[in-house]
Design a protein that fits this description.
This protein is an alpha/beta fold and about 475 residues long. The protein contains 14 helices and seven strands. The strands form two sheets. Strands 5-4-3-6-7 form a five-stranded mixed sheet. Strands 1-2 form a two-stranded antiparallel sheet.
């Protein structure tokens, strides 16, 4: 029997026990169908869960232009560096005329310049320290010369340690592939066990800078937060990210509960937290719920089989698109902040009214979601009340993207030491990107400071 034939009248003619069972089964079927219909466009599923060929074809006419660059487009080429910065300059002069063959002499004051870039011979720099052990002629004791300050006890220097750490953390290479690269390309003997020692040194060196950023989190006026599941050995864990205006902090913990937020933000955080609607963030000072998530939720209503939900989804999505249009203009400077707030007043009133309509719709699919949004509607509009707050949580989601890809390649970490390496290096990489710092130089300087027992460079100061 088709589900469309199971009407309320048919159910009402059944015994009470049968009615209860039928309604439970219908609800379960509806839940399973909703799960099957979930896509990255109407849920929080990542785009990688959907095969590219399975994406719906957008209704647009086929372009008549050929692939590649179009006539008249701006030319993109590598600019020439100054001649005095070149390692070698080869002067080429013609010896005879290409027409009559007469001998040529002189020089061209504006010759054509052609530069070729090539890799130098990759040869490691090896420094040997010969520690002499001498015997005292008076007492007979032997004394061995100490290594100079800053010389590591192991066989890896600061640049090599920084390079190996970034090869694994930034470029997402496994320890085995990293060891293979170092051995075959850099001509430095290396094995997977050595990369573990090097990552331990890098983690220990970067720990003070990391802890300084963690301590600064509670004082930030605006943060964006998100989390993603991962593993530490066989145990499920969560990788948290908190994005401030000038730095980002990652933390790998064994729980998704609010205890992690309390640990990192303390009890004194009074800033604005941009996030999805997960309830562990509700303990933060003031929230800004992500409108990109809400847009997908409204699209899920449109994609459902419930006609009442479809109608409300269409009605909510229309002003939401207007919201993003006005926000885009305000962000790029074509609309003033005052003009943006003026245009948003009717949109805010319309969406609040539509949510109230869902609250009183008596539709189980709509009532719960709309009541939560309406009861906390102030968290929808914080970006209008406080300048500098964005309506989406894209900053946190972007910061997690690299970490999620790394997790899929590595299947998580295997020990607490590996987890500390992940959170410390990801924090350093993302913060250097935000501050436009050269991450390799920063990690190298930090490892050098660690070997010299000096204070580590800070990620809170301006580069």
């Amino acid at each position: 029997m088709s589900l469309e034939l199971i009407t309320d009248d048919l159910i009402a003619r059944q015994p009470p026990e049968a009615q209860a069972i039928i309604r439970i089964l219908l609800a379960k079927i509806a839940e399973l169908e909703a799960r099957l219909n979930r896509t990255p466009q109407n849920s929080s599923l990542p785009p990688s869960t959907q095969h590219p060929h399975a994406k719906p074809v957008k209704p647009r006419s086929k372009s008549k232009q050929k692939r590649g660059g179009q006539p008249g487009h701006a030319k993109h080429e590598r600019p020439l560096i100054p001649t005095d910065q070149c390692d070698d300059v080869v002067t080429l002069k013609p010896t005879e005329c290409r027409r009559c063959g007469a001998k040529l002499s002189g020089r061209d004051h504006a010759p054509l310049r052609h530069q070729v870039w090539e890799l130098p011979e990759i040869k490691p720099l090896v420094t040997e320290y010969q520690q002499h052990r001498l015997r005292c002629s008076g007492c007979g004791n032997t004394t061995c010369a100490a290594l100079p300050a800053g010389v590591p006890r192991g066989q890896s220097g600061p640049k090599l340690i920084a390079f190996v750490a970034l090869l694994m953390a930034c470029f997402r290479q496994s320890k085995r592939r990293t060891a293979l690269f170092v051995t075959s390309i850099l001509n430095i003997p290396c094995c997977p066990a050595l990369t573990v020692k090097q990552q331990t040194i890098a983690t220990r060196a970067l720990q003070p800078a990391y802890e300084e950023l963690v301590a600064a989190l509670p004082t930030q006026p605006r943060l964006n937060g998100d989390e993603s599941p991962t593993k530490e050995g066989p145990v499920k864990s969560w990788l948290w990210t908190f994005v401030a205006s000038t730095f980002t902090v990652f933390a790998l913990r064994g729980s998704r509960a609010a205890t992690t937020i309390r640990e990192l933000l303390g009890e004194t955080f009074t800033g604005v937290m941009g996030c999805d609607r997960a309830k562990m963030y509700w303990r933060c000072g003031r929230l800004q719920w992500c409108w990109a998530h809400l847009k997908r939720d409204f699209q899920a209503l449109i994609d459902s089989d419930d006609h009442q939900a479809k109608r409300l989804g269409h009605d909510l999505l229309r002003p939401t698109k207007e919201l993003f249009r006005h926000w885009s203009r305000c962000r790029d400077g074509t609309l003033t902040r005052r003009g943006f707030e003026r245009l948003m007043r009717p949109i805010r009133d319309e969406i609040d009214g539509l949510l109230l309509r869902g609250v009183f719709s008596a539709n189980p699919r709509l009532v719960g979601m709309c009541r939560e949004l309406y009861d906390h509607r102030d968290w929808l509009w914080t970006f209008l009340d406080i300048e500098g707050v964005e309506p989406t949580n894209n900053a946190a989601e972007r910061s997690l993207r690299h970490a999620v890809i790394w997790r899929k390649l590595s299947f998580g970490t295997q020990s607490p030491a590996g987890s500390r390496f992940v959170e410390t290096l990801l924090t350093t990489i993302e913060t250097c990107r935000q501050q436009q710092r050269h991450v390799f130089e920063f990690v190298t300087q930090t490892v050098e400071a660690h070997f010299h027992h000096r204070n580590a460079p800070s990620l809170l100061t301006d580069p």
